[in-house]
Design goal:
By secondary structure, the protein is α+β, with helices and mostly antiparallel strands. The protein has helices spanning 11-15, 20-26, 46-49, 118-139, 173-184, 190-195, and strands at residues 2-7, 31-35, 55-59, 70-74, 80-83, 96-101, 104-110, 144-149, 187-189, 204-205, 217-218, 221-226, 233-238, 250-254.
Length: 256
């Protein structure tokens, strides 16, 4: 089983760029999850709503149009689909879509960015904690796979210039501490599980100063699995050569 995740930074724009649909179908993925779609399904045509061989499941921002949003494309009809976290304070921005299939819960999440101000940073940290509570409750019934843009690099090896960013949201001690907490609760960073402490592997680059060309990036996009699924993990990788967004796709392969 193959899963792909990508923050597309505007699905309509990215899907119009050369090579997108070739990439989409050539993945052969069972699930393709996008974040930061910036669109509601009623704004789209059939090509994005119903690509060949896939069903699509959406969550869109309610109050701010052209903001946030996630979609998961699935080759199989899920048992259950749910939008949003159950906590009202963290609803309305279209940040979560959950698909439940017989083997696991798949959560596609666009976690908040905390760089705007202190209020938004507190929102991000609260969202993190509400998400962990949600995942732990779901895990009582099935294992968990979480993919998406976490908006935080975990370790010094997960960004090119860690010392320069220790006071920047996305690499603050309290943000990184939550990832420590998440891992301590039994969730495994599949890229590190497969690839160890490899360096220079990033999934996001600032769109200025030729950061991508120079590989001055951050690894802030992840596939996590709950620990009980690690025996099923066969591969986890990043696809930095796939263009179209300031992020690149990441992928996970499991055997059931």
């Amino acid at each position: 089983m193959k899963l792909v995740s990508w923050n597309v930074n505007g699905l309509r724009a990215t899907s119009c760029k050369p090579g997108f649909w070739d990439w989409f179908y050539q993945t052969g993925a069972d699930f393709i999850s996008f974040q930061e779609t910036k669109v509601a399904p009623e704004q789209l045509g059939d090509e994005l709503l119903n690509p060949t061989d896939y069903l699509s499941y959406w969550s869109a921002s309610v109050d701010k149009k052209g903001y946030s949003g996630v979609v998961t494309y699935s080759r199989q009809d899920p048992e259950e689909v749910k939008e949003e976290l159950p906590t009202p304070a963290f609803q309305g921005e279209g940040r979560v879509i959950r698909l439940t299939i017989p083997d696991f819960h798949l959560l596609n999440v666009y976690f908040p960015n905390g760089q705007k101000d202190e209020i938004r940073l507190r929102y991000k940290l609260g969202f993190y904690n509400a998400f962990l509570d949600y995942a732990e409750n779901l895990r009582k019934s099935k294992p968990i796979i979480v993919c998406g843009d976490f908006n935080t690099a975990h370790k010094f090896i997960d960004l090119a210039r860690p010392k320069n960013n220790e006071k920047t949201s996305g690499f603050l001690p309290e943000e990184r501490a939550w990832l420590d907490k998440f891992i301590a609760a039994g969730y495994v960073d599949t890229f590190r599980f497969i690839n160890g402490d490899v360096t220079g592997s990033y999934s996001w680059w600032a769109m200025r100063t030729r950061a991508r060309e120079r590989n001055i990036g951050w690894r802030i996009d992840y596939f996590f699995v709950s620990r009980e699924l690690t025996p099923k993990v066969r591969g986890a990788w990043i696809e930095p050569n796939v263009l179209g967004s300031d992020h690149c796709p990441i992928a996970l392969e499991l055997v059931f």
